[in-house]
Amino acid sequence: MLNNREDGGFFEKLKKGLEKTRKSLAESVNTMIFGEKVIDSDLFEELEAILVSADVGPVFTHELIEDMKETVMRKDLKNPETLKRILMEHMTLILKSTDAPLTIRRNGPYAIMVVGVNGTGKTTTIGKLAYDLKRQGHAVMLVAADTFRAAAIEQLGIWGQRVDVPLIKQKMGSDPSAVVYDAVQAALSRKTDVMIIDTAGRLHTKSNLMEELKKMKRIMGRELPGAPHEVLLVLDATTGQNAIVQAKIFNDEIGITGIVLTKLDGTSKGGIVVRIAKELRIPLRYIGIGEGLDDLRPFNSEEFVKAIFE
Ligand SMILES: Nc1nc2c(ncn2[C@@H]2O[C@H](COP(=O)(O)OP(=O)(O)OP(=O)(O)O)[C@@H](O)[C@H]2O)c(=O)[nH]1
Ligand SMILES: [Mg+2]
After folding, report:
1. How far apart are the CA of 56 and the centre of ligand 1, in A?
2. Which of 65, 67, 261, 263 is the most buried (most CB within 10 A)?
3. Pocket residues: Cβ below 6 A from ligand 1
4. What is the pLDDT of residues 135-151, one digit of tens each?
């Protein structure tokens, strides 16, 4: 009972976080079908425009519309009200391909390396993630491998205090790989379950960042077999197409195993998740819907689509 009530609050918060996308997608679709008598090609054209403006992308929107038309024909559907349900079904189906929650292996430190360009929300996401994993009973450690700015180390330290998990750091300007080396030794001796590594977000076009990330990966893998077990790329949902480009570059350079899409609360273009699913084919592990501790959610396609349309 308590769980159900909690789940209700959880879902309501997700809906609230996705409010802007709800407005641009669900409300527009509702307005579109209101008072319409039949499903016709005009209706599909309108729907196409709505989806494109929510950042689903012209190519995938077209595919989605064609699939929907096919379903409508096959099932001989007439009532415009059914369009919304069909759209929800088709979107869920596309997003299912990217549904793969992060699972932490219990034996030995599990290393999560967090990467992404400036300001996408890496450090904040790490704080939220540490909070969530700790709540699940894991012994968590934060690692300050963004050594370029003193403020970056401090910021991670504040999250560490807030969530009450240890932080491994060195002084500003030190070699990030040395920090990672230290952290692995500490994690092994303290029997840490999960180490989360914060990295710098300098422009991805500067190849030395990539070289540095590669070196960190190498050192980690040498000291801890299989590490990093997860390379999480943090993308800012408000940057649209740019986020997709960043993902491709990071994936080509260092290999990405999961994505976190932040700031969905700040955009009406939540349709970008469709492009992440279709274009990148990298699991979308979490979505960020605010700045608070509770505002990181494991991505679940069904829940996401319902939160937008229901
Ligand atoms: N609204 C909203 N803001 C977010 C979310 N995630 C992060 N932010 C904000 O985005 C800003 C940048 O976040 P950081 O965590 O510092 O980003 P970063 O990637 O570590 O930045 P650098 O270390 O400079 O590369 C902060 O003001 C965060 O509070 C989110 O899901 N929603
Ligand atoms: Mg940071």
Report:
1. 24
2. 261
3. 116, 118-124, 146, 152, 201, 234, 262-263, 265-266, 288-291, 295
4. 999 999 999 999 988 89
